[in-house]
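Below is a filled-in request sheet from our internal design queue. Each sheet records the structural input a requester submitted and the sequence that came back. We keep these sheets so that new team members can see what a complete request looks like end to end.

REQUESTER: design group, bay 2
PRIORITY: normal
MODE: inverse folding
CHAIN LENGTH: 325
BACKBONE (tokenized):
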């Protein structure tokens, strides 16, 4: 595939024993054409260290893709996960990852792929995560890495690590949101029939007993709150709407969503502000009111905390015909 100047090149390294699910996630998010978005999408390629690579449990053999030289032209490199994380990756794969790190490429791992990044030495002194099942082994093998064992994904500079397989979707959508904005990420998530935005800091694994009587889902409350983000909602307001105490609501949010009611509200309000900026809504005070962030000062603070960008920078980056903020 020829690379257009406006395309960001994503290369996935597939090694012996790689899990097909993570490969499918990367292909779905970055590889499929999306003409409905009316913008250049990613230039996507797979590569392997050998001409033929047997996938996890020998489900199938991958062939007919490029070799590891593909990594040397990638803007983003997704490294292979490990069927046995304690078995080191091949020297050729580690060399390719180190070359990519040396030239500043964005490095991404899904699930046990964090072991590949750590074995290459690129996680030393950085924050990272991996699947909860392998945290003890990871901490023992790589003490120089600051492991965050309970989160969905971690971004540390240009290195991104996701926890379990499903968290690969969360991280992938986060990368799309970083590259193309909230509106495009929402469009992709709707195509996937997947939640549009889960913060990386949410818990990756919630250990709870199955209740004797199924609890009522938070979904109706969340839908109502999203329709009223412009109002000064409080945790008490949400609890009253749900017909429970604030303490009970807090426990349910932690149990079902892995976050607090206030944290969820703030995330939703920032996401709405991002969409309004992308659509060309004028006036920061107006955007702050419509999104429930209150003031332009708070909008700037929350947007910078979430995206690393000021409102004007965000608008310039993600709006085709920007108007001044």
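RETURNED SEQUENCE:
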């Amino acid at each position: 595939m020829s690379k257009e100047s406006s395309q960001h090149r994503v290369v996935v390294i597939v090694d012996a024993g790689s899990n097909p699910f993570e490969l499918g996630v990367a292909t779905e998010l970055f590889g499929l054409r999306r003409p409905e978005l009316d913008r250049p999408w990613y230039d996507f390629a797979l590569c392997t260290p050998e001409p033929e690579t047997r996938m996890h449990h020998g489900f199938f053999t991958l062939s007919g893709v490029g070799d590891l030289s593909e990594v040397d032209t990638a803007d983003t490199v997704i490294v292979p996960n490990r069927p046995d994380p304690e078995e080191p990756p091949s020297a050729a794969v580690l060399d390719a990852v180190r070359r990519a790190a040396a030239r500043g490429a964005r490095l991404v791992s899904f699930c046990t792929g964090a072991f590949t990044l750590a074995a290459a030495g690129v996680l030393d002194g950085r924050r990272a995560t991996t699947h909860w099942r392998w945290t003890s082994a990871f901490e023992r093998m790589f003490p120089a890495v600051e492991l965050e064992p309970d989160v969905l994904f971690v971004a540390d500079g240009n290195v991104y690590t996701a926890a379990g397989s499903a968290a690969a979707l969360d991280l992938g959508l986060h990368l799309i949101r970083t590259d193309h904005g909230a509106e495009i990420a929402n469009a992709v998530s709707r195509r996937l029939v997947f939640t549009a935005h889960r913060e990386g800091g949410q818990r990756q694994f919630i250990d709870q007993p199955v209740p004797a009587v199924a609890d009522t889902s938070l979904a109706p409350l969340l839908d109502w709150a999203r329709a009223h983000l412009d109002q000064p909602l409080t945790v008490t307001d949400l609890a009253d709407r749900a017909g429970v105490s604030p303490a009970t609501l807090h426990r349910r949010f932690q149990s079902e969503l892995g976050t607090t009611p206030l944290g969820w509200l703030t995330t939703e309000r920032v996401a709405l502000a991002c969409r309004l900026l992308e659509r060309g809504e004028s006036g920061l005070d107006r955007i702050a009111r419509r999104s429930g962030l209150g003031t332009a000062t708070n909008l700037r603070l929350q947007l910078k905390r979430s995206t690393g960008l000021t409102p004007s920078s965000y608008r310039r980056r993600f709006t085709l015909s920007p108007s001044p903020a």
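SHEET NOTES:
- The radius of gyration is 21 Å.
- The longest strand covers residues 9-13.
FILED BY: M.R.
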